Structure formats: structure tokens, C-alpha cells
Amino acid sequence: MGLIISTPGVILPHLEAHYHLSDVRASLVFVVVPFGYLIGARLNNPFHRHLGRRGIALVALLCQMIFTGTAAGFHSPRPGGFLLFLAATVIGNVGTGLLDGSWCAWAAGLGGTRTNTMQGLLHGSFSTGAGWGPFLAASMFSVREMSWWTWYYVLLGAVVSQGLVTCLAFRRDDGKRYRVELEAVKRNEVAAPLALHQGESESVFAYAGVWTCAAYFLAYVGTEAAISGWIVTFMLRARHATPYLASLSSSGFWVGMAAGRFVLGFLTDKLGVRTATSAYLVIAILAQILGLAIRTSEVTMVIVTVVGFFLGPIFPSGIVAIAQILPRGRHVEAVSFVCSVGQVGAALLPFALGSLSQWLGIRVFEPFVLATLTMALLCWRWFPANAAATSPHVSTA
């Protein structure tokens, strides 16, 4: 998944050249992503009940094979070629929507008092793949001088490997086993606080905390997508970096994020998720302000890596927070919903950045990221501190 998610940023300049696209038209790559993701997120809960985690892994594998196979094999420079690429992107993100919500919710139930550490390991692995993606793609394009679509053959092999591993790992997790797990969870929660127990019969949308988390993910995931999607173009145009260094900047962002998720998860468990996440966002904002003041390609690359490091735990922290305020039986549905809203942000904010870039120039990149990071911090500070504050049966006045 990490390899796929980090691909648009390094591919974007090649798509613009191959299909003769403006920044606004190229930004459609980000806009179509939520359509597939929302379909996957909507199907997540019923698929879990009928197919289990094993079925989720199989369906996601099929979707992502269609996407990568189409992108690798069909790339006509005519206008219809780009439309086909967009359609394949939608199908691929149905698989991403299924996997993202499923594995995040599954990991949220592990780790006991070390949930931030467990989430850090899961998302750190994702970011490791995302860090390798731009580096490997840049090596193929700049060193080997291969065409952009050859990268999708690599992704095709990666998604097949991922599918085989996850199907093997969850080979016994069918729909029947998942339904049995849900019944066991409900029985174990009989002794839970009354408001939380009564909330089992409520829709996840009745919880104020779900909507707050959705707004937080809208801002944060959109920021992450804007950075990874436009950093290469920004480095090429505004910092006049070489194509290889520009692609390494994208890798640096994701490598920093991977390191942050592996390292800071332990610190987050010590400090508490609310305090630690606020501190990480403040540091990322200060680093971004420094980037506005020092405008060399090398320093920008370092700052992007530092920002990635402190943004590493931000997404896992949201998953932990939403899991803490909801009954376990609601985790899959709630996590799928807030992640899907995050993907809406991952479409809207990069598209908005592309539109502003077309109008004002790519130099708006850094102020734009600074503004969206500030939005994410404000949403996080608004997040309820406990389950009682978010229960549909307890007043929050």
C-alpha cells in the first residue's frame, strides 16, 4: 500500500508531459481517489460480516491488480488514455479503501496499553514502503531512463505479493469467524459503562467524536497527500533541484514518516496521545515556518524529512483516539468512515494546491502546507478527551 500511495507525487511530472496536462488537469489524479476509496469503505462492514478478513484481502488484491495492470499495459498518449488511467485509479482505490479501514481497525484492537506502539509499527511499515517508492521510481526514470509506466509493473508484483501474504495470514478469518468474534466482544462489554454499552445500538454517526476525528483526518490526510503529491514538482520548479534530488525529497518525507512512526510510538504511549500529538504538530509547523525562511534545495529536503518524522504518529494517533471512544464492535465501521473522509481531504487539498499553483505559481506550496497543518492542530485540540464526552447518550454541554 505504501508503494502505491507515494506513487502520484513522483509520477505527476511524467503524466503532465506524457498526456500534455496542466497542473489542474493533472490534479484529477487526486480527485478520483476518494470515489474508489469511499466505495471500499462503504463495503467494508458488510464484506467483513460475509467474507471476513480473508475475503477482504482477496477482493482488494483483485482491485489493485486491475489498477496496476491497466496502468502498466495501456498508456496511449491520446486523451482517452488519461481517462482510462483515472478509471483504473478508482478501481485500485476500492482495494485501498477495503484494506486501510480493515487493517487499522484490526490493529486498534491489539497491543493493550501499547496501542500507539502497535499502530506505529503498522503505519511505520506502510511509510517504509512509501519511502522506498519514490527512490526506486526515480532510479528507474533518471538512472535507467525507463518510461513511467514500467513502474506499474513493479507495483503489480508488489500487490500480488501483498495479497498472497495477507491471504495466508488471515486464511482462517472468514465471515463466520468474524461474526463469532463480534458476539464475543458484545458479551465481554456487558460490564462496560452504561453510556458506552447503550451506544452499541446507536449509529457511529451519533458520536460527536467520530465527526471531530473525520474533520481531523480531512485536514491531516489532505496535508500528507499535498506534500507527497506536489513536493517533487515544487523542488523542480521553485528550488531548481535535479529530477533525482526532487524525487529523493519525496522519499525523504516518507522515510521520515516511517522513522517517526517506529520511534515516536513509544514516546506517545509515555506522554499520552493527546499531549504527544499536539507537540508533534507544533514542531512540524515550526519546521515548516523555517522552510519558508531558508530557500535552498538541500535545506528544503532536510526540512521535508523532519516534517515527515513528526507527522509520522499523527494518523495512528487518530485511529487510537477513535478506538478509545467507541465500542469495539463499531471500530471497523467508524475507522472506515473517518479514513474515507481523510481520503476526501487527500483529493480536495492537493487539487486546491494544484489550482492555486496554476494561478499563483508553485511557490504557494509551503504557505499552503503551513495553513493545513494549523487546521489539523485545531481539529486535534477540539477532539473529546474521553468516551463519555462523545457518547450519544451523554450531554457534551
Automatic annotation (TrEMBL):
Keywords linked to the UniProt accession: Membrane, Transmembrane, Transmembrane helix, Transport
Superkingdom per UniProt: Eukaryota
Ranges of residues in domain Major facilitator superfamily (MFS) profile: 1-387
TM region positions: 24-43, 55-76, 82-108, 120-143, 149-170, 204-232, 244-264, 276-294, 300-322, 334-353, 365-383
Subcellular location per the Swiss-Prot or TrEMBL entry: Endomembrane system
Pfam families assigned to the protein according to its UniProt record, in alphabetical order: MFS_1
GO CC annotations, alphabetized: endomembrane system; membrane
Transmembrane helix is among the record's keywords: yes
MF GO annotations: transmembrane transporter activity
Membrane topology: Multi-pass membrane protein
SUPFAM superfamilies attached to this UniProt entry: MFS general substrate transporter
Family, per entry: Belongs to the major facilitator superfamily.
Protein name: Major facilitator superfamily domain-containing protein
